[in-house]
């Protein structure tokens, strides 16, 4: 009898893996056809100066086309990475975001554009030329383009990634370490790579104003990063208490649902115009 139930269990797992496999293959095929139809969209989430509360930057976040079923980037980006389709998708994101930046800089000359870069893209040789071509065509300065590299990119130390980051940095692009605080060897990355900006991960935000040990860690970290001259951005600000806390800790920039959600370019255009008046 137990033998029988054991067998059922195996069948159950097999079925689950098979379903998961089909789901991923389905998403992978869809990514290919969406790319061909130029169907992906970019949303933009504003980044605010902590002192002036003005929008000083924006982060491009890729979105699945408006159709059913829909997937978030946390699900389809890893699939695009495995299948090398990240190169095509990444190129589209870079050129679209930089064109948009050029447009916004006509009225907000100091605005920056943050672009998430996958570690897979860093390992390929044409990333620098893709970025250079895009800024040349759009006539924007490399210093106004921030490349956000997620901390997990450095799990495996690779010379290729390190060389790529140094080359990008030497060309003037700004490098941000994204999701800082999630990994276990974050501090080492700050020494090994040419990083300008540290984005504190959402999980670093205290759930309430009560603080305690968490608050001490955040405060200590902020102090250290400031002393090392990193620009510090807090992401995932959802409550006024978190915002006040980050301002109190003298972090440089703030981003989160409390301030603004990711939105289509036209909506951010409206926000920027309103702030201008
Ligand atoms: P990320 O770069 O860390 O981006 C922040 C994510 O947190 C975004 O999710 C954003 O919508 C969300 N977020 C912003 N404010 C808040 C908040 O206050 N609370 C909460 N709970 N969430 C907040 P999204 O757009 O789903 O993107 C998820 C991840 O997918 C990104 O994390 C990034 O790693 C990746 N991603 C998105 N677009 C691209 C892209 O164009 N290229 C690459 N390689 N990765 C991308
Ligand atoms: Mg990011
Ligand atoms: Mg992040
Ligand atoms: Mg993330």
From TrEMBL:
EAL domain sequence ranges: 24-276
Recorded superkingdom: Bacteria
Protein's recorded name: Response regulator receiver modulated diguanylate cyclase/phosphodiesterase
Organism of provenance: Congregibacter litoralis KT71
Full protein: residues contained: 291 to 567 of 567
């Amino acid at each position: 009898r137990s033998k029988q139930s054991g067998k059922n269990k195996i069948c159950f797992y097999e079925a689950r893996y098979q379903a998961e496999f089909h789901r991923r293959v389905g998403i992978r095929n869809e990514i290919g056809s969406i790319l061909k139809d130029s169907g992906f969209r970019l949303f933009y989430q504003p980044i605010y100066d902590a002192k002036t509360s003005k929008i000083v930057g924006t982060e491009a976040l890729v979105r699945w086309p408006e159709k059913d079923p829909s997937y978030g980037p946390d699900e389809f980006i890893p699939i695009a990475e495995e299948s090398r389709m990240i190169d095509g998708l990444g190129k589209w994101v870079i050129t679209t975001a930089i064109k948009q930046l050029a447009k916004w800089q006509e009225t907000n000359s100091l605005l920056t554009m943050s672009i998430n870069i996958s570690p897979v893209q860093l390992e390929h040789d044409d990333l620098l030329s893709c970025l250079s071509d895009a800024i040349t065509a759009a006539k924007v300065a490399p210093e106004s383009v921030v490349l956000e590299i997620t901390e997990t990119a450095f799990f495996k130390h690779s010379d290729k990634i390190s060389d790529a980051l140094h080359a990008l940095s030497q060309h003037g692009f700004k490098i941000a370490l994204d999701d800082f605080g999630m990994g276990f060897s974050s501090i080492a990355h700050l020494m090994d790579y040419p990083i300008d900006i540290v984005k504190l991960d959402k999980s670093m935000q205290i759930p309430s104003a009560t603080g305690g040990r968490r608050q001490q860690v955040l405060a200590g970290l902020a102090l250290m990063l400031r002393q090392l001259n990193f620009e510090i951005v807090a992401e995932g600000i959802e409550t006024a208490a978190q915002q006040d806390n980050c301002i109190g800790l003298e972090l440089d920039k703030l981003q989160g649902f409390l301030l603004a959600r990711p939105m289509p370019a036209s909506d951010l255009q409206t926000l920027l115009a309103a702030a201008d008046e």
